[in-house]
Design goal:
Serine Threonine Protein Phosphatase 5, Tetratricopeptide repeat, mainly alpha, about 75% helix, 27 helices
Length: about 475
């Protein structure tokens, strides 16, 4: 009796396993059929590295296999997305979302592609799905807010940004989103109150363009002009950091895309990621001047001076007419206490790049440092001739002329610096100090007003000028 019962149980288990196996087998076949149907036509990869062609071919073969179809299609999506074949990647993501319905990366990456194509409606639906699947992944929420704002749904966008801030206090991109909501509604004062702490928090990297317009709308033209001068020195963020997108660069074979991504990573302080990306770019193409130069700068920033020297030297060999390579090599050699090597690099650079404003500026500074001010004047003039749209060389030239007692010439150079950069903080401060020193009270008040409206002038410098004004004129400004 007992033996018969065991046999019955065994038969039942066997039937169950067969049934389960049938379900699993059918799912495998359905997955392969869907993946094969989604396979995009292979793009022309003849100009790309052999490794990429091989990896694409392998991923296509796996997509056609019974047991690896989903993994093959996922790999293909990464390769296409990472290297800019976005239509092909989007086609893969559409089926991957069916194969792995619980994976938030697929709708999120798909949404970023469609948003870039201007297909806001479908992108919005996909990003909502990504947020549902991964509610704690803030980059998806931020992109959802941006898409809602583009869809003219500011209240819904504001709700998304506020939810991000509840999860992460002072998240700058969420703060920017709320400022943009106020901006679009012409709530200028409220936008100003949001933007001022934001631009301070991000050192004018975020919110720059909005706050200039807000100041102009509020009639604060001096502040607008002051902030506008910030952009030359700061650059700007683009999108919020997004690890699910950034991780694709491990499969990128395009050195330009790698360089751009490395620059963005370095700008937000992620030097390790920037280093990895640039090393990959140089491994892919050791003769890519831009990547080699970026890598040299990054090594110097990380205080890896020996490596930086090698990369800057390599720049001068790859392209002897690349002035920035010579300039950085010379500056680094001086930093490494090799003044003779620095001088040789500077002389070699000027011989090959005689119209480089940066190299002439370096030569002028070296002459000043050794007390040869009169000789430095001509080098400064060459620098300003070849680059008349930046104030730095004009200001330094003016200082040298003042030291030489050539006051009128110095003032003319200061005026030129303000033509190049109308709100340059150093130029404004010097003009204010000159007016105070010469007893020009009207001019001093005018220049000090501009100094106060320039956010790049430190509070300490403003206070020193006020004290100088009080001592000179016996009045409190």
């Amino acid at each position: 009796m007992k033996t018969r019962r065991i046999r019955i149980i065994g038969v039942a288990v066997g039937v169950a396993l067969l049934a389960g196996g049938g379900v699993g087998w059918n799912r495998l076949k359905e997955t392969r059929a869907a993946a094969v149907a989604a396979l995009p036509a292979t793009p022309d990869l003849r100009a790309w590295p052999d490794t990429l062609r091989e990896q694409v071919g392998k991923a296509e073969r796996e997509t056609r296999s019974l047991f690896h179809a989903g993994a093959g299609l996922a790999e293909l999506s990464r390769l296409y997305h990472a290297n800019g074949f976005l239509r092909e990647a989007a086609r893969c993501y559409g089926v991957l979302a069916w194969i792995q319905p619980g994976e938030a990366r697929w709708p999120h990456r798909h949404a970023t592609i469609l948003a870039g194509f201007g297909e806001t409606g479908p992108a919005l639906a996909l990003e909502r799905r990504a947020v549902e699947l991964a509610p704690d992944y803030l980059p998806a929420r931020l992109r959802l807010g941006d898409l809602l704002l583009k869809s003219n749904r500011p209240e819904d966008a504001a709700s998304v940004y506020e939810e991000v801030l509840r999860k992460k206090d002072r998240e700058p991109y969420a703060e920017l989103g709320l400022a943009r909501v106020d901006f679009e509604a012409a709530r200028w004062e409220k936008a100003r109150q949001r933007l001022e702490p934001l631009v301070e928090q991000t050192n004018f990297n975020l919110g720059y363009d909005l706050i200039v317009t807000v100041y102009e709308k509020l009639g604060m033209d001096d502040r607008a002009a002051g902030v506008r001068s910030q952009r030359r020195a700061s650059g700007a963020f683009r999108d919020a950091p997004d690890p699910w997108i950034d991780e694709l660069y491990a499969d990128c074979f395009d050195t330009y895309r790698l360089g751009v991504a490395a620059g963005m990573a370095a700008r937000v302080g992620d030097l390790d990621t920037a280093m990895n990306l640039l090393e990959r770019a140089v491994d892919l193409n050791p003769r890519d001047l831009s990547s080699v130069f970026q890598l040299g700068g990054l090594c110097r920033e990380r205080k890896e001076f020996s490596r930086a020297r090698l990369y800057f030297q390599q720049c001068t060999e790859l392209d002897p007419t690349f002035a920035d390579g010579w300039a950085n090599l010379s500056a680094l050699l001086l930093q490494l206490n090799d003044p003779a090597g620095a001088e040789r690099a500077l002389a070699s650079g000027l011989a090959r790049c005689p119209e480089s404003p940066g190299l002439h500026l370096m030569r002028a500074r070296k002459l000043v440092a050794t007390g040869r001010r009169a000789e430095a004047v001509e080098e400064y003039r060459l620098s300003t001739r070849f680059r008349a749209n930046e104030a730095e060389a004009f200001i330094e030239l003016a200082g040298v002329l003042f030291d030489l007692g050539r006051m009128d010439e110095g003032l003319r150079e200061m005026e030129k610096s303000l033509v190049a950069e109308p709100e340059n903080p150093a130029a404004l401060s010097l003009m204010a100090f000159h007016a105070i020193s010469t007893g020009d009270e009207t001019g001093a008040r005018r220049w000090l007003a501009r100094v106060r409206n320039q956010p790049r002038v430190s509070a300490e410098q403003v206070e020193r000028l006020r004290q100088a004004y009080r001592q000179k004129f016996g009045k409190t400004l």
